[in-house]
Amino acid sequence: MSKSKVTATEYSTYRGLPPLAGLTTMARAVECHWSVEQSTERLKRFHYVLKCMYETLTARITAEPVYELKTAMSHHAYLCAEYTTAIRRRVSEMRVPPLGLDVVPHESLKLLMDEILAAPTTEELVSGVYEILVPALLEASHRLQSDAHPLADAPTVRLAKLMHFEFSEVAEFGKKAVACLISMQHRDAMLPWTELLRLCLASAGGVDGALSIEDTAPPQPQHSATPYQYRKEPKRDERFQDSYNAGVNPEAFLYDERFSPRDKTLMMYYKRLREIDVPEMMASILYDLRDEEPWEFHMEMSRQLWDEARHAMMGEVGFVSLGIDWSKIPINFTWSRNLNLQLDARERHGVLFFIEQGLMPRTGKRYEWEVGRESGDGLSGMFQDFDWADEVLHAQIGRRWYVPRYKSLQEALAYGDRCWTKVMSGWHAYRDQGLTTHRNWWPDLYLEACERWNVPPDPLALSYNTTYEDSRADLQRLTS
Fold it and tell me: Within a 10 A sphere around the Cβ of 194, how many other Cβ atoms?
């Protein structure tokens, strides 16, 4: 006698254990409405949008005045780079070479990304990225989770889940940023442009192409009708005062054995916060070399750029922990400004590598960690611990992507040193033009910190008055 057929809903596992490694139900697993082609076509569209979003956010870091947006864009650009890389890897697994990852999947998607890149104001950039693009990415990643076969295409489903999780946090940041920065007046003025962006998405069938395409005329460019021009000069918001000030040399203080680790912690917090100039400079390298280097270069350099933004936030947190208003301290930006305006991308990369390698010896990041550990400030010790770890990674990234262009490590280092040497510091010129007096801000900061610590100031530390007039950050003497 034949047994009755067991349906998927009736199927039972050993002692009721979850089936299929917990990926899905048997009822869902027996459905067969998915293919490698469908999966790769959607992933390629994600790849295009995420890569363009990485490029847009990176390109806008330098000239974005608002510090919180600089740091957020550094983070979000890195996330885009991470998922672009993950998608490239997944598509390469799906027997579809050539991969076709550089092909524009839809002209309306191209217009969407071109328009956001060309957004002329902070408000429009924030609206385009966080009100329109990121929600569209979330919707598309949710559809991919639902539509892809949970067993056959489990790696893609996992990728979609991770992407949705992390970009949900991006969306939450964006929602709050929009509420803080965009008034009703702004919104009304931007309406024709934001409607254009929505029309682009509708015309493309969404980020993933899974939506029905509206039968409308192709959108016409607005901001992108004029090609985007990268702005190399860093901009800062109104909290950053006296940004040309180079009246205090923190490195000379840090390496002077006469001063205590506790007092040196202040200078290290300053150095960390000042590192916001590294993303401002690195963004220019990545923008200028966007088509000259392989994607893997951008992926690793994006990580380094994000790390440098994190370091700046460590300095911010350090000052907050001491109850000190960092906006009263001149946070100098002339390093990024001078490199961006005086050197080409290869030369800037040379300077970056030379500085990274200089941080590796015993007197570099290890020394800063030791100072932080001995200072009695646990936060400083922890931050320097991770700062050191990050810089070891950055030195390795430089050795992978910078050194091979030269015959030897020594030649690569010498080139970076020469490039840095040719940069005119502008110390006297900025003073003579009335851009700064190079005020010695250290005594005020130090006295306030001593009050917070409830300790008397060290007279020698209080009298510190060494500037950048004739030396650079590695304490090498300037020739002019």
Answer: 16
